[in-house]
Design a protein that fits this description.
Length: 153
Amino acid sequence: MKKYDIVELISEKYYANHNLKQQTIGIILEKNNQTIKIMFFNPKNNGDYLVLDVQENDVRLLDHFDEGFLKQYNINLKLLAERAKNFFYPSKLKLFDKVKLLKEDKRYSKYGIHKGEIGFVVDDNAIKNFIEVDFLNFDESISVNINDLEVIN
């Protein structure tokens, strides 16, 4: 395995405290004698990633990422890695959870949705911490920041 190889985590036992699960996909950033530095992508929150050193035998090779693609689209993995965390925060929301909007915000009020509105999670896969919620008495679902919601019974 080498830099820019795409890998999949096959053993999670040493990485559970980072909330890293088996079958999580990542890209090798560096390879040392003992470990590999990998940028893993959160499968439940698109745009969320972490960087972690793992043992080579805990991942399997899937493919090789084209370095030309990175240059063409000006993707700086080194800069992204410097900003990375080393832990995936577990999602507090699940599909069909009943939720309440905790915050008054223009991005919600423009749809007529205000603090205290009740809705249901219709897709528990987030994009940059935004999740799709269908609010009662409204025709459409909207994307809401996970931190602006509270699960209720």
